[in-house]
Amino acid sequence: MSRHAIVVGSTGQIGRAAVESLLDDGWSVTAVHRGSTTAPSGWARRGVDERLADRADLAGVLRETGGADVLLDTIAYDDADARLLLGLAGDVGSLIVVSSASVYADDAGRTLDEATGPDDFPRFAGPVPETQATTAPGPATYSTKKLLLENTLLDDGRLPVTVLRPCAIHGPGSTSPREVWPLLRALDRRPRIPLSHGGRSRFHTTSAANLGELVRLAAGRPASRILNAGDPEPPSVADIVRIVSATAGHEPELVPLDGPAPASGVGRTPWSVPRPFLVAMTAAATELGYVPVASYAEAVESTSAWLRGRLADRPWREAFPLLAQYYGDAMDDYAAEDELLASRRN
Questions:
Q1: Is 331 helix (H, G, I), strand (E, B) or coil?
Q2: Which of 16, 29, 78, 164 has the fewest CB neighbours in a 10 Å radius?
């Protein structure tokens, strides 16, 4: 019996991996996106029904395609998006919606969104389970809006909803890929790379491939649930820099800096945190029989290859304007790095 999935935000890093995973499992897929990112060339050959449409057009897409057994929304953001999805209940069998692990709060109420430095950064006893407390839902921040999304969907009860909480996602198709930070230094053959917190920071990574596997499993076993999504054996910052550098044939010397980055920001990577932020993956294994399909090192090979292709003919700021907006000069301030490294030699 044919199973039909609709993937919203299908050409981003999560959507691409999910489409591929569902296709491999025998699903027919309608890929919905707005056209800002080109779909992979092989999709048409594999029978993907590509629809250029906005979120507001989803009801029409469902009417034209005869409904869907599951709808995956990779970009839903708040309660308004949740209400729109719930309004599709008559034409959709179940929902899978991507939230974020940033909704978690530690036992003192500290959250990622509100952290300004080491003193108020969340402190967790270990990998965070789905039962951990969260921030309060509301319109104030990214994470509070994501919790509004979750609560609105799960409290409704009209159809099964799987909520996925990934961490630092990586994969081809990203609009703000963190891996650009080490890759630029590798491509520019920077001999020494300083890292704050001694390079020991661990901020859980989530490969799009592993997310795609979770989507596949959840689609086949619809239910209302919340599941973390993180890579196996999450790497430290030093591991990440070494692994990504190796994909570009570079082996830099890593220079550990004590404590947080100085005012210049030297040594601060997109994963640099004063305390570990890791999620537990027990629930996914128990609920769905989930087994990761790739380690960080395995999955980042394709990410790096895609990034190198994007960076081959244009500056990184043109290739990834959102990344420039988020990180600015901190992404490649080599002058400040050289100054700090020179001072350590004296």
A1: helix
A2: 78
In contact, 205 and 243? CB cutoff 8 Å:
no
**Residue pair 52/35 in contact by the 8 Å Cβ criterion:** yes
Angle between helices 237-247 and 180-187 in degrees, nearest 10: 50
Listed residue (172, 193, 240) closest to 336, CA to CA: 193
Provide the pLDDT for residue 207. Answer: 98
Q: Is the pLDDT assigned to residue 346 strictly greater than 60?
A: no
Q: How many separate domains does the chain show?
A: 1
Write the CATH number for 168.
3.40.50.720
Domain of residue 192, residue span: 4-345
Backbone angles phi, psi at 161, to 5 degrees: -135, 120
Report the C-alpha gap between 304 and 325 in whole angstroms: 21
Report pLDDT digits (tens) over 226-235.
999 999 999 9
For residue 75, give the nearest of 16, 120, 157 by alpha carbon. Answer: 16
| Range 32-66 burial, b when 16+ CB lie within 10 A, else e | bbeeebebbeebeeeebbbbebebeebeebbeebe
